[in-house]
Amino acid sequence: MHLLFLCTGNACRSQMAEGWARALGGNRLTVASAGIEAHGQNPRAIAVMREAGLDISGQESTRVTDEMLRRADLVVTVCGHADEHCPVLPPGTRKEHWPLADPARAGGSEDEIMAVFRASRDEIRARVEDLLQRLEQGRAAS
Asked: Which of 4, 6, 7, 12 is catalytic?
């Protein structure tokens, strides 16, 4: 199973989703993330994932390519912009949309901003766990 998380800039949400899917999916999945654009990794996303015991600093912020889309069995868009601007997918490639708020837009004190990033991290983990469970159930049913 090839799983691709797609976001606008591949800096926060898709990076965290990739990290969780790699950690929780084990060798059952090939996981990547990409953006409609590449904005570089967000240091706060790296920090909150590190707090949860995952190092995503080695992941790259990349722009989606036709090859990535051809390899993907499932594309998960994690923001409205990516969902609306998702390139045409090859036949047989499934798409799922997760309307996640962008933690990079959070305001307030550093503590308040980090709380938003932690909440986003935890929501993404729960969604990845749910997705993996659904994929496993689908595999068992086949």
From this structure: 7
Examine the residue annotation and report whether 7 is marked as an active-site residue of this protein: yes
pLDDT in tens, 11-42: 999 999 999 999 999 888 999 999 999 999 99
Q: Catalytic: which of 3, 79, 128, 131?
A: 79
What are the strands of the beta sheet with 2-7, ordered from one edge?
30-35, 2-7, 74-77, 94-97
Q: Is the pTM of this model over 0.85?
A: yes
Domain count for the chain, please give it. 1
Catalytic entry in 23, 38, 47, 86: 86
CATH number at residue 64: 3.40.50.2300
